[in-house]
Amino acid sequence: MNIATPNRSKSTGHTVCPHDCPSACALDVEIGVDGRIGRVRGAAENTYTAGVICAKVARYAERLYHPDRLLSPKRRKGAKGAGDWSEISWDAALDEVAEGFLKAEQAHGAEAVWPYFYAGTMGQVQRDSIDRLRHAKRYSGFFGSICTNMAWTGYVLGTGALRGPDPREIAMADCVVIWGTNAVATQVNVMTHAVKARKERGAPIVAIDIYDSPTIKQADIGLVLKPGSDAALACAVMHVAFRDGHADRAYMARYADDPAGLEAHLESRTPEWAAAITGLSVDEIEAFAALVGRTKKTFFRLGYGFTRQRNGTVSMHAALSIATVLGSWQYEGGGAFHNNGDLYRFDKSVLTGEAYRDQDVRFLDQSQIGRVLTGDAEALRHRGPVTALLIQNTNPMNIAPEQRLVAKGFARDDLFTVVHEQFMTDTAKMADIVLPATMFVEHDDIYRGGGHSHILLGPKLVEPPETVRTNLFVIEELAKRLGVADHEGFGMSEREHIDRLTTVNGLPGYDDLLVDRWLDCQPDFRTAHYLDGFGHADGKFRFRPDWQNGRAPNRPPVSVGILGPSQALPEFPDYVELIEVADAAHPFRLATSPARNYLNSTFAETPTSRQKEGRPEVMINPADAGRLGIVDGEIVRVGNMRGDLRLHAKVTDTVKCGVLVAEGLWPNHAHLDGEGINVLTGADNVAPHGGAAVHDNRVWLERTSA
């Protein structure tokens, strides 16, 4: 049973939300006399969290003490996916895992083993220790492409660095633009600071998205455009800025590479041109351009969602460029912010085993796991098969694109799969060995904010059930059994790793952070706003990005090279039709947007989240529904060249004609046919550095009789 260890008295513990979200909220956790956690609250003392967190994390006790939590190691007995298991001891399980990996290595070489992980925890130690085992054993490399590549690449190719104005300055803005992220559902703290600007300064909130999201409903101005058309809107806004005298020519002369070339390029990118592409009216575009043009202190909060298109890198760069044309960077409460990844000075070399990384080991693309496991030669880099997997912190059977290929790969009889998890996810169901994992309040770790500027300590607050183990434990025990435990970095505790990460570069260690809780790494105003120059060698913002050779935070290894149709990328900010354009056979564009009560596939197991979300549905505009004879609640079939599945129709004017939205990554079994929405998404690479365009899908939709 999942029973907590009693505590002597009721107390409040301090930690960090570990999940895949830029907010990395500082948390205050009630701990009862029975040793169980109670209510979870945002830390009021943290100036970014500001006491506010999302509802799903506030009720985390529901997840921690869920009756279906995995509490013992399991060995598969029957067919893969059949759900027939036997319980085994930890020692027996780890022995079998090591034996399976050694067999794979002996048959096909070390690259036959692929440690596969992602952001189920954002804790540096529990997430990244798997790389130390990878490098020590020379297992296949992991190119983590699925989430950030398009956004980070587009931003850094403009600014030269992955950082920006202090996001707390949103509260000091005279206009807040929330572009391509449903902050109400996915980054609640953005709304905290935006609403403060509206209340205290009268700042209008503008939200830009592809449907009438909860954020647009709370905004003063909502711009609902066609999926993949964001760059066209950005270009038209900059056109108006030059046309109407809002462009800050003196600023650009000092800080940008080719403002004259940009102005000439944008002469034909009129609001009329953009209206035809975006579906917005000319009046909407003109009004938005005039608002930001005359409002110097406009804060552009640029999200991830709008970059998950095949032209997403270009869209991020184009939206980012508006702040440079207007000179918004010069003002407190102005500029464009996406992520602060460059602020932190962690030394992860020992944690990840960089000293024994072999540059000749192949890298495999996370997003293309379906192709890898089904023997695609290009995905395998023209080398041998993957016959063993170690999976931590992710659920590829549910969240990876081309789900039918993924399922086919996991069903291979010759594939030995080990999953270390908290619940019996879709991926765990396909494993040969399942290992039960701790949750964040049950182990030590350290975190950093993407959406803010803090390093935060997440100390262990409660004892885990006796039969579950940390990610670090699994890596350490496998290292012993696989003969690499003598390599540097093994044998260290979480606290020792935290101290090594931080103190080498002069940051406070575990004990100091335990007292202070977090460290604010926000640079001074001039640095944050690039007033001493942007991050490129010449200090200039790039209107003309070097798509192939420019700096990018997560570019593919040299052995992989440039990805996607990079030759089609534009010289200046522009709309490029690299997306899956709707056609006669596929008249709809489908986006798989986040749900408010889920976070990727996490929280989809908790009763309250599932109750609030209802069931898997696809939103369709009433005019489209009427034309097809579809009524609200009816079962429909959606499909494309990758597959098809049935969903219930939600007829709503939340979406525009020609656009479908399916919110949330539901467990596959929650769908009518046992397959999830990622049956419809593609794994082809987005130019120039890869990534998955999961919101960019052309599909057909039809009524079905059952």
Automatic annotation (TrEMBL):
Its cofactor is Mo-bis(molybdopterin guanine dinucleotide). Signal peptide: none annotated. Residues 10-68 form the 4Fe-4S Mo/W bis-MGD-type domain. InterPro entries: Asp_de-COase-like_dom_sf (IPR009010), MoPterin_dinucl-bd_dom (IPR006657), Mopterin_OxRdtase (IPR006656), Mopterin_OxRdtase_4Fe-4S_dom (IPR006963), Mopterin_OxRdtase_prok_CS (IPR006655), Prok_Mopterin_Oxidored (IPR050612), YoaE_C (IPR037920). Keywords: Iron, Iron-sulfur, Metal-binding, Molybdenum, Oxidoreductase. Pfam families: Molybdop_Fe4S4, Molybdopterin, Molydop_binding. It comes from the Bacteria. Belongs to the prokaryotic molybdopterin-containing oxidoreductase family. This is Anaerobic selenocysteine-containing dehydrogenase.
